Amino acid sequence: MSRTIKFAKAGGPEVLEFLDTEVPAPGPTEVRIKVKAIGINRAESMWRHDAYIEPVAKFPAGRQFSRAFRAETGQSPAKAIENLRVEAARLMMEQSRHSLDLVARQTGFADRDRMRRAFLRTFGQPPQVMRRSARAKVTA
């Protein structure tokens, strides 16, 4: 038997149903994984509290969104996303020894070259140079 949590309507913990369910035996090409704890992501939590659709529906579409975003932040949505990716990549490079290919993929860049071009636009230097200078500061 397995303990299952079911929610069929919006609300807090009081709307959750706890059920004991039969665990089927795994098939010939399946495996059973023991789960000690689980969590739900922000979107599922908002949906459970009936707060997900409404805020999203209030955003203007397309070009209107871009104008509103630029007016509020001073940059385009694409530039804001690129800045977040570049900053995440910079931190990942400084704090790990992962390859630049892996860093690029993990931070949302299509490939290493796109990350390199974004670094040049943002910092004026390629990621390899920034990684070397960050490592030199640590050893100094």
List the helices and strands and how they pair.
Layout: E1 2-6, E2 17-21, H1 42-48, H2 53-57, H3 62-73, H4 77-95, H5 100-106, H6 112-123, H7 127-139
Antiparallel strand pairs: 1-2
Helix pairs in contact: 4-6
Looking at CATH, the homologous superfamily of the largest domain is Homeodomain-like
Helical content stands at 40-55%
How many domains, in number, for the residues?
Answer: 2
CATH topology of the largest domain: Arc Repressor Mutant, subunit A
The rounded distance between the terminal residues' Cα atoms is 58 Å
Going across the major beta sheet, what is the strand order?
1-2
Secondary structure class reads: mainly alpha
Q: Give the low-pLDDT segments.
A: none
User: How large, in whole angstroms, is the Cα Rg?
Assistant: 23 Å
Number of strands: 2
In DSSP terms (H or I, runs of 4 or more residues), the helix count works out at 7
Q: In a nutshell, what does this entry contain?
A:
The chain has 7 helices and 2 strands. By secondary structure, the protein is mostly helical.
What does this structure look like?
The protein has a two-stranded antiparallel sheet with strand order 1-2. Helix content is 54%, strand content 7%. The chain is mostly helical. It has two domains: 49 residues, no CATH class; 64 residues, Homeodomain-like (Arc Repressor Mutant, subunit A, Orthogonal Bundle). It is built from seven helices and two strands; from the N terminus they run ββααααααα. The protein is extended, with a radius of gyration of 23 Å. Helix 4 crosses helix 6.
